[in-house]
Design a protein that fits this description.
The chain has 744 residues and is of the alpha/beta class. β5 and β6 form a beta hairpin. α1 runs antiparallel to α2. The protein starts with a helix and ends with a strand. 46% of the residues lie in helices and 15% in strands. The relative contact order is 0.10. The strands form five sheets. The protein has a six-stranded mixed β-sheet with strand order 3-4-2-1-5-6, with helices on one face. It has a six-stranded parallel β-sheet with strand order 9-8-12-13-7-14, with helices on both faces. The structure holds adenosine-5'-triphosphate (ATP). Adenosine-5'-triphosphate (ATP) binds next to α4 and α6. It comes from Streptomyces lateritius. It holds the Pfam family UvrD_C_2. InterPro entries: DNA_helicase_UvrD/REP, P-loop_NTPase, UvrD-like_ATP-bd, UvrD-like_helicase_C. Keywords: ATP-binding, Helicase, Hydrolase, Nucleotide-binding. This is HelD family protein.
Length: 744
């Protein structure tokens, strides 16, 4: 083995980190300096903020590069070579020569794809393993068999690097896989940005890892576009988002919004829970019809023969069935949402009432034309429009509604549903639930926002800005140097100096200042219900209800989406489960399906047990192929005291490196908690603790070194998709699985 080769690689890595330190210092100094500069005027402040944001982004990327900065090297047959890294870094020379190439660059692709059969121009590929800033191992693969150079690092299996990553003790936080992305995964990560891509695969096939690396890749390849529109990643629950939350920052990417479906209605925190039945009813597509019907029901007319009578100075006003029906018809004809169609209803009624009054007051008893002139009628109309009682009466017929008010009323008295469904969702007051969020969004669409008042305020502010800008321009005009004026005086066209006046008018100058919202796109997106994201990634996509899909599709008008999931793991009773069903209403059959077939998480011994469970529901089921086996067989015990058995099993495992999960139905948690004093539990458990107590739903998407599944039969029978829940629970372990069954 050539120590010379090792030394050279270490030298390179040392030089690389020195450059990283310099870049980091520069970025830090730039941020510091910018923060200390007050920024004169709006423009100055804007420039300062942009500078801080840019440099902070760079700083985040440089900090991300600290660990595992460079992990590979490609040596091409023509002699040139590249080091591959987590982020790209260039030398400080005139050509800005690349020191290390970003893993997402096209030139890095052979690192993931080249094979002996298709070497892609490579003669050798090197995996460099580092610990901190020290090189700890090199693995060389010779791809050009005619190349006789030997470094001494060849005859070792490059899969060692992958297997070491898979075997490593878990930390409670997901790690990136840039060093060991497999070819089938790479193709998905880099597939085109447009359109809907569905990635399906069994447990542990790397769907989440691929989805996150795809986000990083897209942000790199389409930075301009996606930095403006932001990328949204949707995951099933807050614990899962916490689990994956470090991956993108470790790749230097921070411009991404991570959210559960229950967090996608700004201003609403969904802290309540639904019964599975209620969630299923709320998630069903029929709910859209029901809500639309309920909105129409809020557009009322008085009963025939029972008009609304409003006292008015010039005589009682009568809103009768005919008049209201006509006004409602006209308003509905606009096909506008409820709140936006409302002014049409109001104006129609006001007109009709003014006419009613005019007919009464100006009527010629002998049948001749009305005595009132247009001015008198206009005056009457004004009086009617100014009468608050008239508006109060109209409000009872066509009330302005907010989504929150409307849905709360609807849930108190659900309509357009079967009796059983209505009973399942009926709720008077209480907290919003995740299943309510898509309904709030649906309601917001049906109601529309009458933002005329907000727009008027905005316009007034814009006018104020224009006036201010005009003032600024006037001052700049007045302060031109005498010399320029002189020149202009002599010959108006001769001035070669452009002043602000020549190139910009006050309106445009003011518009520039309107961009003073310096939040990142992801931050602005989080606060805006109608935000259209540049790309949306949905993890555990099989869990989403039809109503949640309606919400997400509204956020993705371009339909640029990556959906990852596994129908066999569907747990939510409202989960749609079939890609065709999910997608047909939005893109018909214009979507692409790719499958991942290798299980990187679960050893073969554990997967065999999990597959047997799955086959109960689907006899022909074929599990994904496990990439490794550990020789450790899962165990199962039937015991009288499952709580004590669990506590003993945890105690036996504690102390070893890694994480332990106890996965048990919620009903057992109160008994298990005191027996597991070191365990973290609850709605958002700390996954970095050595022991975590979860129910099967919470375990979705997570992984642990050791998993203990308690009372599998209760899991299986405890939910509509109980078999799937058990399958999920059994496939969470990277090393050891124990199953504890209470004696009957
Ligand atoms: N190419 C790879 N190199 C190293 N580790 C990998 C690779 N692909 C996947 N893994 C690891 O395998 C494990 C499972 O991956 P991931 O959680 O993405 O699978 P999944 O398909 O989303 O699983 P599930 O459906 O069960 O949630 C993770 O620890 C991940 O880091």
């Amino acid at each position: 083995m050539s120590t010379e080769e090792f030394r050279k690689e270490q030298e390179f890595i040392t030089e690389l980190y020195a450059r990283l330190d310099d870049l980091r210092d520069e970025a830090e100094a730039a941020v510091d300096q910018a923060l200390r500069t007050p920024g004169v005027g709006n423009q100055g402040r804007l420039e300062r903020d942009v500078m801080v944001a840019e440099q902070s982004g760079l700083l985040a990327a440089f900090n991300a590069g600290e660990s595992g900065l460079c992990f590979g090297r490609l040596v091409f047959r023509d002699g040139h070579d590249h080091h591959i890294g987590r982020i790209g870094i260039r030398k400080d020379d005139a050509d800005r020569t690349p020191l290390v190439v970003d893993w997402r660059a096209e030139v890095a692709r052979p690192f993931y794809l080249a094979t002996g059969y298709e070497p892609m121009g490579l003669s050798r590929r090197r995996h460099i393993t580092t610990h901190g800033r020290e090189v700890t191992a090199l693995h060389d693969e010779v791809l050009d068999l005619t190349d006789e150079t030997r470094t001494g690092y060849e005859n070792r299996d490059a899969d060692e690097v992958l297997l070491a990553a898979l075997d490593a003790a878990r930390t409670g936080r997901m790690h990136d896989i840039v060093q060991t992305i497999q070819a089938e995964q790479d193709r998905i990560i880099r597939s085109p940005h447009q359109g809907v891509l569905v990635v399906e695969g069994g447990p542990g096939t790397g769907k989440t890892a691929v989805a996150l690396h795809r986000a990083a890749y897209l942000l790199y390849a389409h930075r301009e576009q996606l930095a403006k529109r932001a990328v949204l990643i949707v995951g099933p629950n807050p614990a899962f988002l916490g689990y994956i939350g470090n991956v993108l920052p470790s790749l230097g990417e921070t411009g991404v919004l991570l959210a559960t479906p229950g967090e996608l209605f700004p201003g609403v925190r969904a802290t309540g829970t639904d019964t599975p039945r209620a969630a299923a009813v709320k998630g069903d597509a029929a709910m859209a019809e029901a809500l639309a019907g309920a909105v129409r029901d809020r557009q009322q007319v008085p009963e025939r023969g029972e008009p609304l009578i409003v006292a008015h100075d010039d005589g009682d006003l009568v809103i009768d069935w005919d008049m209201a029906l006509e006004a409602r018809h006209k308003a509905r004809e606009t096909h506008l949402p409820h709140n936006l169609a409302r002014p049409y209803f109001v104006f129609n009624l006001l007109d009709a009432l003014a006419e009613q009054l005019a007919d009464r007051i100006g009527a010629d008893p002998y049948g001749g034309p009305n005595f009132l002139g247009p001015d008198d009628i206009a005056l009457l109309a004004k009086g009617v429009a100014a009468n608050p009682d008239v508006h109060a009466a109209i409000d009872t017929l066509w009330p302005p509604l907010t989504p929150e008010e409307f849905l709360a009323d609807y849930l108190a008295e659900p309509t357009h549903l079967s009796e059983e469904d209505a009973a399942a969702v009926r709720r008077d007051g209480g907290e919003w639930t995740p299943a309510d969020v898509p309904l709030l969004d649906e309601a917001a669409e049906l109601l529309g926002e009458d933002d005329s008042a907000a727009r008027a305020a905005q316009e007034a502010e814009r006018q104020r800005q224009i006036q201010y800008a005009q003032g600024v321009l006037d001052v700049s005009y007045a302060s031109r140097t005498y010399e320029f004026e002189d020149k202009e005086e002599q010959d108006k066209d001769a001035s070669e100096v452009l002043s602000a006046h020549d190139i910009i008018d006050a309106e445009r100058f003011a518009e520039r200042h309107e961009e003073a919202d310096h939040r990142s796109a992801a931050e602005r997106a989080a606060a805006d219900r109608t935000w259209a994201f540049g790309h949306i990634i949905v993890d555990e996509a099989q869990e989403l209800s039809a109503m949640a899909w309606r919400l997400l599709m509204r956020r993705s008008p371009t339909r640029s989406m990556t959906l990852v999931g596994d129908p066999a793991q569907t747990g939510d009773a409202a989960g749609v489960g079939s890609w065709e069903k999910i997608l047909a209403p939005y893109v018909q059959d214009r979507w692409e399906l790719v499958r991942l077939r290798v299980n990187y998480r679960t050893p073969a011994e554990i997967m065999a047990v999990a597959a047997d469970v799955r086959r109960e529901a689907d006899p022909g089921f074929e599990p994904p192929r496990s990439v490794r086996s550990t020789g450790v067989a899962p165990w199962e015990r039937t015991v009288d005291d499952p709580v004590k058995e669990t506590a003993d099993a945890v105690a036996a495992e504690l102390g070893a490196e890694g994480r332990i999960a106890v996965i048990a139905p919620q009903e057992l948690h109160p008994a298990l908690r005191p027996a597991l004093p070191e365990a973290s539990y609850g709605p958002a458990p700390d996954l970095t603790r050595p022991v975590v107590l979860l129910d099967p739903r919470q375990a979705k998407g997570l992984e642990f070194d050791t998993v203990l599944v308690v009372d599998p039969d209760a899991v299986r029978s405890g939910a509509v998709h109980g078999i799937n829940d058990l399958y999920v629970a059994l496939t969470r372990a990277t090393q050891r699985l124990g199953v504890i069954r209470p004696a009957a």
